[in-house]
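Researcher: We plan to redesign the surface later, but first we want a full-length starting point. Tokens attached.
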């Protein structure tokens, strides 16, 4: 891999010098990324944990592991709120989780991802149990047939579906490991509220920005009263966030696109905060991915926002340009999310801190506890 050695870095620099602004396009054509200069194996994202630490519901009180430079320590959520100073900026994600998980009459799960046209959707479903010729019957006698296999699959429907259909029959798409830990196939009624942030506003996500589940609207007001700014953006969580990594070399992993909107007022606040010596606190990996994508000019300008889709895979070797503090849950091993945390804090430090948290019985993953990683 070109970017995996000092020689590779030199070659990349030569490409940029020779081709100027065309350099990134050349690298993309060659299957390389201009944003990374190292290689990493999937096995380096791995760690062990006991199954009983997988959180199956939200806790009444969140525990927080804070990592500031050196050793990790446990602090309260109230303490974290006081650390967001008057010169700082907190950025949150306003996405809202869709109840996009539908079950057929025979009990087969279909996760609706994206509408292609009124009669065709991208979906995720166990297609081995669904032959391409078989018609699946969904609620209200909706007929579905697989028209294209792959990841995701495409299904053809006999009639269009609207958001009211999903509100009536859909379930929030919890991560499969929560259902496995519960021993339950279906989501609970309580998940409709528990798996939604306090400020969820723009429908479109297939998963919650889970770091935000620890905070309330009242917490945001407390932060503002201290003089800090709070701004919003939207990234709809999709396949890019939660699909597993299948290849050994992380440079070969393909991230699926996710839709993003960064309001101009938010991006201007980020730039001003960093220029004046403040810290940008990113509440969740989705906020980090959105802002770092914007810093790389991946979106198109509209009247009020920068809008587009991102397939940016943040992993060790990435240079952060918009994030000073990363607040995020504890993530699964060998996932794109733990790769982002390692890019921010270092692979060995993240593994050591995760082991520290596991020894102290921190709760893990989507409904689990919070980790805060500070660069300064």
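Model: Full-length starting sequence:
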């Amino acid at each position: 891999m070109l970017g995996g050695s000092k020689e590779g870095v030199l070659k990349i620099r030569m490409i940029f010098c020779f081709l100027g602004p065309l350099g990134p396009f050349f690298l993309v054509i060659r299957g390389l990324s201009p944003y990374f200069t190292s290689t990493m194996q999937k096995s380096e994202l791995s760690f062990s944990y006991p199954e009983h630490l997988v959180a199956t519901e939200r806790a009444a009180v969140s525990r927080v592991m804070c990592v500031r430079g050196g050793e990790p320590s446990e602090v309260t959520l109230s303490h974290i709120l006081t650390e967001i100073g008057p010169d700082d900026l907190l950025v949150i994600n306003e996405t809202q989780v869709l109840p996009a998980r539908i079950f057929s009459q025979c009990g087969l799960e279909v996760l609706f991802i994206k509408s292609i046209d009124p009669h065709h959707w991208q979906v995720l479903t166990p297609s081995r149990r669904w032959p391409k010729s078989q018609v699946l019957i969904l609620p209200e006698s909706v007929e579905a047939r697989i028209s294209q296999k792959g990841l995701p699959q495409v299904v053809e429907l006999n009639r269009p579906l609207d958001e009211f259909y999903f509100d009536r029959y859909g379930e929030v798409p919890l991560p499969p490991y929560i259902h496995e830990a519960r021993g339950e196939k279906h989501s609970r009624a309580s998940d409709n509220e528990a798996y939604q942030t306090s400020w969820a506003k723009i429908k479109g996500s297939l998963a919650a920005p889970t770091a935000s589940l620890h905070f309330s609207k009242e917490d945001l007001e407390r932060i503002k009263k201290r003089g800090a700014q709070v701004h919003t953006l939207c990234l709809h969580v999709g396949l890019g966030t939660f699909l597993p990594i299948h290849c050994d070399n992380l440079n070969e992993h393909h991230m699926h696109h996710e839709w993003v909107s960064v309001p101009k007022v938010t991006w201007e606040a980020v730039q001003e905060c960093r220029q004046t010596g403040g810290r940008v606190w990113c509440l969740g990996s989705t906020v980090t991915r959105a802002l770092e994508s914007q810093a790389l000019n991946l979106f198109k300008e509209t009247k009020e926002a920068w809008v587009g889709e991102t397939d940016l895979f943040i992993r060790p070797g990435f240079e952060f340009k918009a994030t000073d503090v990363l607040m995020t849950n504890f993530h699964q091993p060998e996932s794109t999310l733990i790769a982002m945390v390692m890019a921010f804090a270092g692979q060995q430090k993240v593994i050591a801190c995760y082991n520290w948290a596991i020894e102290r019985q921190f709760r893990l993953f989507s409904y689990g506890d919070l980790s805060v990683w500070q660069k300064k």
